[in-house]
Amino acid sequence: MSSSFGKLFTITTWGESHGPAIGVVVDGCPPRLPLSAEEIQVELDRRRPGQSDIVTPRKEDDKVQILSGVFEGHTTGTPISMLVPNADQRPGAYSEMKDAFRPSHADFAYQSKYGIRDHRGGGRSSARETVGRVAAGAIAKKILALGTPAKPVVIRAFVTRIHDISVPESSLAELPTLSEIEANAVRCPHAETASRMIERIKQVRSEGDSVGGVIECRVHGLPAGLGEPVFDRLHADLGKAMLSLPAVKGFELGSGFAGTFLRGSEHNDLFEMRDGVVHTTTNRSGGIQGGISNGEDVVIRVAFKPTATILRPQKTVDIHGQETELMGKGRHDPCVLPRAVPIVEAMAALVLVDHWMRQRSQCEFRF
Amino acid sequence: MSSSFGKLFTITTWGESHGPAIGVVVDGCPPRLPLSAEEIQVELDRRRPGQSDIVTPRKEDDKVQILSGVFEGHTTGTPISMLVPNADQRPGAYSEMKDAFRPSHADFAYQSKYGIRDHRGGGRSSARETVGRVAAGAIAKKILALGTPAKPVVIRAFVTRIHDISVPESSLAELPTLSEIEANAVRCPHAETASRMIERIKQVRSEGDSVGGVIECRVHGLPAGLGEPVFDRLHADLGKAMLSLPAVKGFELGSGFAGTFLRGSEHNDLFEMRDGVVHTTTNRSGGIQGGISNGEDVVIRVAFKPTATILRPQKTVDIHGQETELMGKGRHDPCVLPRAVPIVEAMAALVLVDHWMRQRSQCEFRF
Amino acid sequence: MSSSFGKLFTITTWGESHGPAIGVVVDGCPPRLPLSAEEIQVELDRRRPGQSDIVTPRKEDDKVQILSGVFEGHTTGTPISMLVPNADQRPGAYSEMKDAFRPSHADFAYQSKYGIRDHRGGGRSSARETVGRVAAGAIAKKILALGTPAKPVVIRAFVTRIHDISVPESSLAELPTLSEIEANAVRCPHAETASRMIERIKQVRSEGDSVGGVIECRVHGLPAGLGEPVFDRLHADLGKAMLSLPAVKGFELGSGFAGTFLRGSEHNDLFEMRDGVVHTTTNRSGGIQGGISNGEDVVIRVAFKPTATILRPQKTVDIHGQETELMGKGRHDPCVLPRAVPIVEAMAALVLVDHWMRQRSQCEFRF
Amino acid sequence: MSSSFGKLFTITTWGESHGPAIGVVVDGCPPRLPLSAEEIQVELDRRRPGQSDIVTPRKEDDKVQILSGVFEGHTTGTPISMLVPNADQRPGAYSEMKDAFRPSHADFAYQSKYGIRDHRGGGRSSARETVGRVAAGAIAKKILALGTPAKPVVIRAFVTRIHDISVPESSLAELPTLSEIEANAVRCPHAETASRMIERIKQVRSEGDSVGGVIECRVHGLPAGLGEPVFDRLHADLGKAMLSLPAVKGFELGSGFAGTFLRGSEHNDLFEMRDGVVHTTTNRSGGIQGGISNGEDVVIRVAFKPTATILRPQKTVDIHGQETELMGKGRHDPCVLPRAVPIVEAMAALVLVDHWMRQRSQCEFRF
Prior knowledge:
4 copies of one chain form a homotetramer. By secondary structure, chain A is of the alpha+beta class.
């Protein structure tokens, strides 16, 4: 079950980077939801290779097929199986990875665990696995947009830092619009900063190097009451979702690590009434208190390390225990964050739909 | 199942802060493990109130009873039920919390979710719930110490920062010993820093205020191969475990957020042979690659916010939607970190035993 | 997790026959349900020893304590921990079971699996474990009675056969009332048959022997739509629930094994309209089609073997591999069915509430 | 998760009868198992339509493709995705099922639950869904054959009754061989009885009618110690597995319902030593005691109702609440048992591998 995620809205991903295809099964989707392959494709196009000049130039159309669970344009409540063929397979391109362990990749760990691995392009550990997550997340996003009693739930992720280039905090007072985010290749809603980020990425790529950074994700319109203490706190499940993504090294909610430099009297969010609704005057809690949403915007941040593959020679060890040197080659992302934005959104959507279904199942009984 | 954690070594905690008792059921414990209540008690004593002059002076013995699953001093493989009576109940002391929502506490969120809540001392959202986790974690720690084929797995958590007072990084080159950590009330292995931390905690307490900080946890001796990609990556489950603790706002693995300021060429951990074993020259990966342990020390850090309860008047809203003011009182921790150290260790141990059992179940077949 | 049951309404039982106590944790109970220990006790009193002259004369009050999850007479949505002290412990009474394996009991299998066992009274394999199930089932029954939008769901189990003494089929055309069932010690709603059953049980007991039989359980008022194909079909989960009870050897739905002697043209349930509602003219489907309730009464039957403990010498083997003879003694039920009736009801209720919550979580979205 | 089965060796099936394809994802398979599509195909060929003159003449090759999880002829420990295209789609052939509910089928129940259904050929409720189970079961059978420390575990299912034609009990003293079972179209190991069964099936088919019967399944070579009390008893999980199959109405273990006519003194299995190993002199326990295998052959029986589709007019109701008549047509199995034999074996194998992995994870620690 380690390739399944979600308790009620459950996805199971499968596939290796260079196998014939990659895919996902979504189990537990509510019935009667209007759904087409085109809607899924929109999100896949946001993550696919070759979409701009700062990501990998690999050629993958990533065209999704829906094989089950949708009938006459609506979900039926049965499992939705989606498949994306792997078009750009160049098995030969990875022969150097067959024996030598790439530094800071999963090769050695997989070999240690399983005693065998599909080395081609990283096999199962490749970020290509996230294709299935994004396809499933597209369904979750649609449920959040349509299925609420009140207003649509909007999930918006965006890049706030690349290497040491950060957006000015003041520019994020308002929730960025989708068009602001999609306006540039790096998916940073602050245009001027985005230009500098893009320049930096191109520069490190030209040096055969890579960079990382931080993605922020906000959820607007979420009703209070989602989250399942004590273990399945909403941010604990969001954290697990994000930490299960390749290259992620850290996660924080609301004030996060920075909040630990404040005193309680500076950090607490006071309650007040606004338009007849309980609100907090500040949002250091990040929209979640005690593991349950409180109606404010959910605010989380995810740290992505610099891409492990660099086009430079690096010392390493091979499968026979011999020290050797490995020269990275191929067509890699010098920075994973631009393409990770839709993946972060997908994971957030999956967690929220799952918790929404859990909340309904337990708490809406009337006695 | 939101009060259960772990897939194979599963704990289920129950109990409210001011109910008659609090407890845990551990299901899936390997049989034939020598186990006594005294061993559990050692860990509970590390988390109990009143243990020093910088924690809450509440009087709780926290004496554990084992009600099942242990026979003639050994586990039998059946569920181990443990119970701790709540001794120091003062229901009257919390009457002001009945109607008004405490700022940055879970009161409002619980009320929104369930439409009812046990307000006494925070009820289920109280950190008192972690008593069960620590009791269960004591068993997990013993399994890790005894059950390995090779050497004992050692888990060691300690405070690295309180407010803005940090241990010097150089002082953490070696894994701190238990006695270094337990040598002072704040559980920081660097004595000089510990003194300053304690002073700071006393000072903010005298001002009716509170502080937070960071706990680091290291795991030494863990074999390579633990962790279950793609979703149950070892650090994803560790992250969820920590984020499910009260007051936690952030989690990071290895280089964490700081690592995003490095380039790939600076960040990558190169492989080398040492004593016939594959090792990395550095450990920015934090002992986990691709979600699987690689044999290096696991290194994680957890951010705890300043205690939400402060002994000052704060604006808030009551259950009837009226704005009001609430004056914190009672006997609270001005800083949760000293008592959180054994809790972090417990959660880490629970995750590791669970993953160890999962690894055995799948990967040790011989064909 | 093998001591947990249910996906959303989850119970975890713990305890051995001769430990200090036995209990259960119920996680996922809807909040705001009125609940008292007295209501739980009513069901426990139906299963407790010593209630009539055809069951074991052991003295157990089985007084339940609620330790969490209930506040001011209502459930709070947090785990409900219930505990029943084991009063009548006579460890010495079981010394002969320490080494010798009782025929057709679980002794040998437990020893083979765990390499250790609590032999006292069967330890964890004792039917005393069902105390927790009945306590949890009492809550589930109350939810079914109160929580429906339309009418209460009524669960009624009763004995239809003891040894070769069966109730006349015609007498079961109507759903038996609770008072008809509780009118006699054997819990058979047909008074004349009940007398003969009681006589048979007394007779075999006087011969140091035992008998088994069949319990039928019907659920009336269940709405159509409960059940989760393809694996969690409603009758598959009911079957697992019943087969997890001690002494159960068979399970059937509706026409069951007898239905296999019919042709399709004889067996099919035709649909018709009655009072504006779709009904079937017959109910060989047992109220479930394709794993989903269809609105007719659910009808299941459970086969219980003759009690394994008999007061006669039997050949067996001891823990050292020596053949020996074991003489059953102690205070045992010569027939488990009378006390199993409330247990069967409890398990059915647990499955139904769980499936009801699952149905709500997925299928009640409006797009 | 209702389309997933198994805790550690987990399968997730997807697909509708008349969608583009049908498939399964197997998660948790041990790595390094030699595996080819041809081995899977052998089992699929045993269940496919058109294999003999007593089953449906539909033309389906049921050619399986392995899309992931196998590399250079060995499993890698990652999810194994298998897909079978649906070749013989005739959507028009089912137009009469669009509105009218077929008696004793799942149509009405699905419509009640989901408010929508794929009516073509029964959609998700079609027995075609079992293609994925058989493909996954083929892997489980191979693990059982190769993976044991001692001897191969052999699973053998066969038809013991069709309608009222039973095999003589004496003929089943020995475990039937695979060639005895596969020697005839009905998969009954007693040749003379098989002939009469085949004749009966042909006769009822010629009358537009259908029949059911009983399949027995035995497991030989299973070590003692598999099964997870209290809820995941080995036979409880076997029972759930079988009851989750289309058309199954009953399940029994060992002596089953018949055993309830015996007294304890007649029913108990006495222990004895044979060749230095603990055995029982009889096997009314069916190889499982207290929910744990005891080393004897596991013996279970499954009741299949007569096929619901018959080629006769039947009264029913349509989706608009109008009474109507439906005339079955198409190419259906007049008796599902011959093709259900490999499905029963597959489900048994899946349960056993899952429990074997669970047993290893918990009970093989040495302290």
